[in-house]
Specification:
Radius of gyration: 19 Å
Structural class: mainly alpha
Number of strands: 4
Mean pLDDT: 88
Number of domains: 3
Order of helices and strands: HHEHHEHHHEEH
Low-confidence stretches: none
Strand content: 5-15%
Strand order of the largest sheet: 1-2
Length: about 180
């Protein structure tokens, strides 16, 4: 079976250049999990695998808080956590010790690629958005020339910004915001 994954706007982009190909695929939109879905996402594969690994409830809560239930970030964190943890029970203390390494992997494998697609001006917009301590940002708060054009490109073509409502934007995920804040 072939599965193609990506942001929801990619299907429409693929249709433009390969319309017959897209007819062979059923679209299934996977939304972020709630806390119960996150718990199942984490515990069910571990119990079925018989790998001898268990995750404490407060670790599940911490992972949910970090990922907001986003399937990609859940998968990424759990894959690396299982690879690094070995057998046994993963406590919150153990998770926090391993998470800094996992965050480094996430930066190299996901976020560094994300920002390479941004122009210098777009990167300024992203950094300013990350520096603001609110979830959403109005373009007027960014004080960058041609900010609206940049936001349009970052939203519609690059998927790094989400338009939450009229005149309000946010970075596509809080982990990306944290990455931008920590990046020198």
């Amino acid at each position: 079976m072939l599965a193609v994954t990506g942001s929801s706007y990619l299907f429409h982009m693929a249709r433009e250049f390969a319309e017959p190909f897209t007819r062979f695929f059923d679209r299934f939109y996977l939304e972020p999990f709630d806390i119960e879905g996150t718990r199942n996402f984490i515990t069910r594969p571990l119990s079925l695998s018989k790998a001898g690994i268990a995750v404490e409830e407060d670790v599940i809560g911490e992972i949910y808080n970090l990922t907001k239930g986003h399937p990609y970030f859940l998968s990424f964190i759990m894959k690396n956590l299982v690879d690094m943890a070995g057998k046994g029970n993963i406590s919150l203390k153990g998770f926090k010790r391993l998470y800094s390494t996992i965050a480094g992997y996430l930066s190299r494998e996901k976020f560094n690629d994300d920002i390479t697609q941004a122009s210098e001006t777009e990167l300024k917009v992203l950094r300013k958005m990350a520096a603001i301590n609110t979830e959403t940002v109005a373009p007027s708060r960014l004080a960058i020339k041609s900010v609206r054009r940049c936001l349009k490109v970052l939203t519609e073509k690059k998927g790094l910004v989400v338009k939450t409502k009229r005149g309000e934007y946010s970075l596509y995920h809080p982990l990306f915001k944290e990455y931008l804040r920590n990046r020198k």
